[in-house]
Amino acid sequence: MSTIDAGLTLLRSAAGRVSAVNGRLGNAFKGWMPTGLYARALLIMIVPMVILQSVVAFVFMERHWNTVTRHLSAAVVQDIAALIDVYKGYPQDKDRAQLRRIAQQRLGLVVDFLPVDDMPAPGPKPFFSLLDQSLSAQISRQIGRPFWIDTVGNSNLVEIRIQLKDAVMRVFALRSAAYASNSEIFLFWMVGTSSILLIVAVLFLRNQIKPILRLADAAESFGKGRDAPNFRPRGAREVRRAAHAFLEMKARIERTMEQRTAMLAGVSHDLRTILTRFKLELALLGDSPEIDAMRKDIDEMSMMLEDYLAFARGDTGENAQPTDMVLALEELRNDAERNGHSATVAFHGLPVVTVKPASFKRCLGNLVSNAARHANTISISGHRDHRYLTVTVDDDGPGIPAKMREEVFKPFLRLDDARNQDEGGTGLGLAIARDIARSHGGDIMLGDSPMGGLRATVRVPV
Length: 462
Known about the structure:
Blueprint: H1 2-32, H2 37-89, H3 97-105, E1 109-114, H4 130-142, E2 147-150, E3 157-163, E4 168-174, H5 175-178, H6 183-223, H7 237-284, H8 289-313, E5 321-324, H9 325-338, E6 342-348, E7 352-355, H10 357-374, E8 377-384, E9 388-395, H11 429-439, E10 443-448, E11 454-461
Parallel strand pairs: 6-8
Antiparallel strand pairs: 1-4, 2-3, 3-4, 5-7, 8-9, 9-11, 10-11
């Protein structure tokens, strides 16, 4: 058993190393892969096509092109060897007229005889010339005499010179007789048809990707609190199914929000009726310190009721529209200055942003009011780029401890020693602000301010 256990342990260790290496290779490969579905789908189509064509081209070159070229070259060299044999066997043909005639009429070769010393020195061979390699191999094997070949001088002819005893035999042969010249046509047709098929596939794939992009845009718009009125299911069956599921989910969410709003409206009406009756009854009782205290309690109850309803209702019913953020921030500054605080405003970038104006202004107003409650100086700054709108509210107040900055966003939470403590407050200001920011697809973060107090940062996508 110990030997088996040791073997199993060794196998597990090897499997673990293989898995680790595979994981590293997979992570490295993912870094090179495109992230978009369109690019990945194109890669899935292009890579197999390129590999298939490469394999086909290699097999064609190796099995067909090379073989045919070798056979043609061997046939031309055989004809030349036969002419050399005729030259040797029939010396009575002094001017070689019969030999030239037979070579030209029967073999398609132009033969000439030069002086013995008219043999060029061997030159550099082409780097990649199948014809030159094949002819050289065949001449060395069949004839076995010194030779010189020119396969690049004239594009239609091949010149071959062979050293004989008393002369140099010069032969001109057609390149097509020794070389498979139709291979380029095969490659051209292969690449051409593949390119046409690839273009058709790209156009078809782009039409299939468009419904997915429309679905993503509609979901993103809904997440930002905006409507997508022109969206409807399109594309393949699976994409249509996802689009129908999104529309059903959107309808359920909107129906739930409408039901909650209707219920809250009824509760608000009933409670306000009771509070109004209390106010009328107190007005009939006259003035006294006790009556004034009760009036103050009723006013506080009215304010708390409004905060509760605003938090529960959210920004339901308001449509997003282009809003000038510079004007909105200036209004916040004016409100802060009217309450006796020093405030500054700065904005960078295109000021027009599509948001729900009333709710977003309330979000920023809650942050500014929270800062004004505990600080003397407030700085409001905004920045808009191609992706986000960022608004920061800085103050010189006491701030909030870092460990409590996330807790203060909880509804109804009031910290004893924190800056959001307010005798008449409900602990919903920051919760309402974050709820509005998240309904726009963004969020609110708290941090340290360069002014020594708290910095509240609102960032929403544009």
